[in-house]
Design brief:
alpha/beta, 14% strand, oxidoreductase, SDR family oxidoreductase, SDR, SDR_fam
Length: 259
Amino acid sequence: MQLQGQVAVITGGTRGIGFGIARAFAAEGAKVVMGGRSEDKGKQALDELDAGDGAAFQRCDVRVREQVEDLVDFAARTYGRLDIMVNNAGGSDGFALVHELGDEAWDNALALNLNATFWGTRRALRHMVAASHGRIINISSVEGKQATKAAVSHYITNKHAINGFTKAVAFEYGPMGITSNAICPGAVETDLMKDAGPVAAEAQGITYEQFLDGYAQESMIKKLNTVEQVAAMAVLLAGENGAGITGTLVNVDGGTAAW
């Protein structure tokens, strides 16, 4: 098992990509702590994971700094260490062109994405520095490398910023045995996509099906990626085989952004 005895925190870990990573980590021997806003979804995730004492859930709204910090500390306190921090929670709402984009939507995207990633990373590093070991994995997006979608400038801006932050952390903490990488998925039809996609599609004047197919056709493989593919990359970056990989923005996008 690649992650035997390791302890991981995953924000937004109860569904979609976050839960896929939690499941993959647990299968590789890690103890996982999932954060999420819904107690019901947390219980459901724990039941589905069926990892016994090897998994835990704590309610966490990543837009609230204290809750992010409490989640990280809860993991370290519960399992006695912290090895892996996965900043997965993110998203946006209020889709509009820039001249019509509201302050509330902009601020919410900033809180959900860049701020949450910063708060989670900062707190995790305080544990990792003392241990001279750690893995920071940020779930970014292919749109953090380009800007090819209308009405989501707030989301695109945050993902670009997360990519820069990922590299800065890698540079500062590499000598301390800590790696920092971002995974940049292409379109994956998660629950979040099913919730937000139709609204984004409407803002672009297209159907949800056209919205999804547009992503698929942009890729070299002409289909969407899967949660399992993203989770497999997270396992690599989290384990010993990923010890020499840091400061990278790893695409899992079917060749949508081939650079």
